[in-house]
Amino acid sequence: MAATVATAVTPTEPDPDRCGSEEESRGAEAEEDSTQQQTGPAAAAVSHGRLSKLPLARIKALMKTDPDVSLASQESVFIIAKATELFVEMIAKDSLVYAQQGKRKTLQRKDLDNAIEAIDEFAFLEGTLD
User: Fold this and answer.
1) Terminal Cα-to-Cα distance of the chain (whole angstroms)
2) Coil, helix or strand for 128?
3) Which of 27, 116, 117, 124 is found 20 to 30 A from 13 (Cα to Cα)?
């Protein structure tokens, strides 16, 4: 068996690499635990609000402009918002390839047009930017 020796180390100077005291970090962990333990619609709304970059109220209003939509749950609004974010991210990344081929850092309309024409997933967008 290997013998282990434990020695107590007491720091004389505050460590600059540490972000805060142990009490602060314990308080932050307790706060995270309390937010994770919440359940129900209120907790879902709080967590969805932080995860979405788009304004959920505006998305809900846009959804309600459709005459077929009378009610929209918070979960459905969040899913639409997240899907929109992922779609915008994907088309922006694909368009960036064409901007970089032109040795530019800024996306232009022609980059979007090129991505829409070249990628089959964006075929439904053909003619929408005209």
Assistant:
1) 77
2) coil
3) 27
Q: What is the pLDDT along the chain (130 residues), one digit of tens a residue?
A: 444 444 444 444 444 444 444 444 444 444 444 444 555 555 554 555 478 899 999 999 999 999 999 999 999 999 999 999 999 999 999 999 999 999 999 999 999 999 999 999 999 999 888 8
Write down the number of H helices and E strands in the chain: 5, 0
Residue with tokens 């979007």: 112
* Side chain identity, residue 45: A
Give the three-state DSSP class for 105.
coil
Nearest to 77 by CA among 90, 89, 64, 92: 64
